[in-house]
Amino acid sequence: MAQQHGFFQYLRLKLIAVLLRAWIRFSDADKIRRDKALVPPDVDHERIKIPSRELGRDILADLYYPPSFRFSLPSSPLSPSPSPSPSPCPPPVLVNWHGSGFILPLLGTDALFCSRIARETGAVVLDADYRKAPESPFPAALQDVEDTLRWVATQPHRFDQDRVGVCGFSAGGTLALAAATALRENLTNIINIRIAVANYPLLDLAADPASKKAPHPIIVWALRLFNDCYAPDVESRTHPAVSPSFAPPDEFPPTVALLSCEGDPLGPEANALAKKLEISGLPVRVVNRILEGVPHAFDKGAEEGTVSWVRREEAYELVAALLKQSFNIYSKDE
């Protein structure tokens, strides 16, 4: 199902993507700085390179360690294993993918979330990059997702293969749910994905963006751009690997958390998927939380004292609690 753009279509989308990337880099600089200033100082992190299926190309990723646990990673993921963990067993791992509209290079913008989750749960968090469209349309990003999870499966000395979670924001949430459904069967024998967390995800690329209503109409043209860049073959947009809302209920992991925003046109898609899973009769725990008074990507650069700040605290605390339950992590007081 590899997809390609027409020549002139690609030039148009490429130009728009380049301009949008430059604008986001300028307009979001303060938000990124605010979030990074809040990263807990006792959470270590380091950037690594994960081998991809393409020779000579790596996938960048950031590893966040809880204060109680630290590995000394070798210089290359292919180097000999580091010394054994001082812990009696490896920690669980949450793999996260950032938001991007499938086109924006925003690795690192989830640093606050990743560090908070590592600190509050005791799990290692792997924040992984992926290829962007229109240069690399579907299935390039999902291939990088699969390669990342397969690399996790080769690291039993670092991560508990039986306690793996996937998570993402916006387009990253789309990829996380695709990993937990369309890719899960291929990964069943090597890792156990217990939970999928999708924060304001795009779940139905087949639906007309104009039908997705919210207080921010600019999102309509943006959604068209994202759809056209990522999945130029319109007929492919109903495939579960592209639009997770079409995935059969029995493909989902034991826990699915869908966090949507009241002011986000993508919210109804999360609600519809939650209802689909709830009425399926399958033993899937569905947590569907609608965050009131906030728009899409509300948590990025939230300022103290605002509704976005309050909702971010609610959302991150909820995710941490769900991960602890799914990974069977309990504090001394629990």
Stated plainly, the CATH topology is called Rossmann fold
CATH class: Alpha Beta
Number of domains: 1
Q: Give the helix tally.
A: 9
Q: Return the string of H and E elements.
A: HHEEEHEHEHHEHEHEH
Mean pLDDT comes to 92
* Strand composition percent: 15-25%
End-to-end CA span: 48 Å
> Cα-atom Rg, whole angstroms?
19 Å
Q: What are the segments in which pLDDT stays under 50 over at least 5 consecutive residues?
A: 72-86
Can you tell me the CATH architecture?
Answer: 3-Layer(aba) Sandwich
Structural class: alpha/beta
Q: How would a textbook summarize the main sheet?
A: 8 strands, mixed
Q: How would you name the oligomeric state of the polypeptide chains in this document?
A: single chain
Helix content: 25-40%
GO molecular function: hydrolase activity
Protein name: Alpha/beta hydrolase fold-3 domain-containing protein
Keywords: Hydrolase, Signal
Pfam family, one: Abhydrolase_3
What is the secondary structure topology, with strand pairs?
Elements: H1 7-27, H2 29-37, E1 44-51, E2 58-65, E3 93-97, H3 111-121, E4 124-128, H4 140-153, E5 164-169, H5 171-180, H6 184-187, E6 193-199, H7 218-230, E7 255-261, H8 267-278, E8 285-291, H9 307-326
Parallel strand pairs: 3-4, 3-5, 5-6, 6-7, 7-8
Antiparallel strand pairs: 1-2, 2-4
